Amino acid sequence: MAIASTVHPIQVSILRELLFCPVASFSQLNVDQHATDSFSFHLRALQEHDLLIKTEEGYTLTVKGKEF
Question: Which of 9, 1, 8, 13 is nearest to 50 (CA)?
Answer without folding.
Answer: 1
